[in-house]
Amino acid sequence: MSERLSITIKKPDDWHLHLRDGEMLKGVLPYSSLDYARAIIMPNLVKPLKRLPDIIAYQERVLAALPVGHRFTPLMTAYLSDDTVASEIVEGYQHGILKAVKLYPAHATTNSAHGVSSISAVLPVLESMQKHGIALLIHGEVTDSSVDVFEREARFLDTVLLPLMKLLPELKIVLEHVTTTEAADLIMDGPANLAATVTPQHIFLNRNALFQGGLRPHNYCLPILKKEQHRARLMQAVTSGCQRFFLGTDSAPHEKHRKESACGCAGAFNAPVALSVYAQVFEQANALDKLEAFTSINGPKFYQVPVNDESITLLKKNYVVPNSIAIAGIGEVIPFLAGETLSWSIKRE
Ligand code: DOR
Ligand code: ZN
């Protein structure tokens, strides 16, 4: 096959994004709002977004932080907790305030202390979501500290997700940021109402990247990077054209000093590089023809929203990732793959 020098795709959406709040929101939002038309916004603020008035107020802050000329729709989510009331979720969905509901097992990751203690604790809410076609977005890791950190996703599938799918077979579920062969297999063989987002880091790097010549805090995220065999299977599944995988960056900025710390935060700020990384991975798999479905078609299909009208063009042209990004009022944030050279860049007019 002759080498592609450019590829034009429908404008992508990011189906999993952390924008934070305040100065950080203002600083990081443009990296998403420039190249994506819509994003599913994660609700794990320091005070989790559980109630509709808080979600509406946050959406207004996101819209107010948009740079002039950027057209970007933040699709909001509610943070599921043991005290979530089903009627409030249904009301939020029916009024177009909420697009989905996020389930964090309690203590699974950043700002998840208020997460769900067990599926039975939220069953009435989930039943109601199934009835109304509201998607449940899942951080799929068990939190039992006796389970090896590299096994937590696979264990979650067996002990939580599969029983949940049996209990509520029609519930729309997105397994977020999948990382393992087990998850890839489950999605490939699964029903139409089960889909997954895939991050750039989990199809580009394996766990060696955590320890390359020393400890690499900027490659630390949750779920943690896995062995090469998992990365390779994930890349193969995603580039196979299966419609139930779509783009979700999980871009999760933290201040530099919170990552480069004795107890560093989990999360990779990948919004500036994600599309270049995905293009490079699809090219490696000889599957550039399937990139657009992953970035721009499969997600809208699952969420039953129209595909975007606008397009963007990626060029086969080196992109040197900045070493650091200054965020006004915050300080430095180190982007994912800082200082590295990627082989695809986004065409700017
Ligand atoms: O690495 C992660 N960072 N994983 C998550 O699930 C949350 C995210 C964050 O909010 O920082
Ligand atoms: Zn996330």
How would you portray this structure in words?
- This protein is of the alpha/beta class.
- It has one domain: Alpha-Beta Barrel (TIM Barrel), CATH 3.20.20.
- 32% of the residues lie in helices and 16% in strands.
- It is built from eleven helices and 15 strands.
- The chain has helices at 22-33, 52-64, 86-94, 123-132, 152-167, 181-188, 200-204, 228-238, 256-259, 274-284, 291-303, and strands spanning 6-10, 14-17, 38-41, 73-79, 100-103, 135-138, 173-175, 194-198, 245-247, 311-315, 319-320, 325-327, 331-333, 341-342, 345-346.
- The strands form four sheets. Strands 2-3-4-5-6-7-8-9 form an eight-stranded parallel sheet. Strands 1-10-15 form a three-stranded antiparallel sheet, covered by helices on one side.
- Helix 2 links the parallel strand 3 and strand 4.
- Helix 3 (86-94) packs parallel to helix 4 and helix 6 runs parallel beside helix 8.
- It is globular.
- It starts with 5 loop residues before the first strand and ends with a strand.
- Bound molecules: (4S)-2,6-dioxohexahydropyrimidine-4-carboxylic acid and zinc ion.
- Residues 16, 18, 42, 250, 252 line the site of zinc ion (ZN).
